[in-house]
């Protein structure tokens, strides 16, 4: 392993940093985007049981004691429940727009690493080729060790860049899709809350 790292050259350090960041962010986002973490069961059940005319103190208190993306969005609507439903709807929509990016937090770093790692590998290839041609100009074609050193640096750096970039790209796409699904579910919960509180809606005083 040390021999391989020695052949890669100085670019192993930024590539190693990319690998560490990608792994850390992926693990953190996997935990952060869990269904149970984003949508605590207690809050989902309380919000689902809300009807016009009922005391919302318990639901508001639970949302305040359990801050999070979903709880903050629901709280914004519940605090406006005494106002006309249009105000409640606007509050939910505003809170949703402000909190949705939290679910996508740090994903841009994964996208950046997925693009940068292969480019660093390509840079290593160019530097390796430059090193190889420089050695040829100094010692001619009679030094196979100099040639192999340049070729090794070029090939190993490219391979390591791809090994980091491809899984990071897959992780970015999967986590980005996961965040979009959770945002869609949050919008659906908000829509149900609006419907339940709207006159004539579910549980309302419609005909």
Q: Stretches where pLDDT falls below 50 for ≥5 residues?
A: 203-207
The rough form would be described as: rod-shaped
- The averaged pLDDT comes out at 83
- Run of helices and strands: HHHHHHHHH
Strand segment count: 0
Instruction: Tell me the fraction of residues in β-strands, as a range.
Output: under 5%
Biggest β-sheet strands, sense, barrel: none
- What structural category characterises the helix and strand content? mainly alpha
How many helices does DSSP assign?
9
End-to-end span in angstroms?
75 Å
Detailed description of the structure:
It is built from nine helices and no strands. It is 80% helix and 0% strand. It is rod-shaped and about 90 Å long. It has one domain (2-197). Mean pLDDT is 83; it is low at 203-207.
Keywords:
9 helices, 207 residues, disordered C terminus, 0% strand, mainly alpha, 80% helix, single chain
Brief write-up:
The chain is mainly α.
Describe the secondary structure blueprint for this structure.
Elements: H1 2-8, H2 12-32, H3 35-38, H4 41-48, H5 57-65, H6 69-78, H7 85-103, H8 107-139, H9 144-197
Helix pairs in contact: 2-8, 2-9, 4-5, 5-6, 6-7, 6-9, 7-9, 8-9
């Amino acid at each position: 392993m040390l021999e391989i790292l020695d052949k890669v050259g100085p670019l192993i350090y930024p590539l190693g940093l990319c690998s560490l960041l990608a792994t850390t962010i992926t693990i953190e986002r996997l935990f952060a985007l869990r269904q149970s973490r984003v949508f605590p069961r207690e809050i989902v059940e309380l919000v689902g049981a809300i009807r016009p005319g009922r005391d919302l103190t318990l639901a508001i208190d639970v949302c305040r004691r359990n801050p999070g993306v979903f709880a903050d969005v629901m709280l914004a609507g519940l605090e406006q429940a005494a106002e006309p439903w249009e105000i409640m709807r606007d509050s939910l929509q505003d809170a949703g727009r402000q909190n949705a990016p939290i679910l996508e937090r740090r994903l841009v770093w994964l996208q950046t690493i997925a693009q940068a790692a292969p480019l660093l590998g390509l840079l290593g290839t160019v530097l390796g080729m430059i090193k190889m041609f420089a050695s040829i100009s100094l010692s001619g074609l009679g030094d196979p060790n100099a040639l192999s050193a340049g070729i090794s640096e070029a090939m190993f750096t490219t391979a390591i860049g791809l090994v980091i970039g491809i899984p990071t790209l897959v992780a970015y796409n999967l986590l980005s899709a996961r965040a979009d699904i959770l945002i869609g579910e949050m919008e659906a919960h908000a829509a149900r809350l609006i419907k339940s509180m709207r006159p004539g809606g579910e549980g309302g005083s419609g005909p």
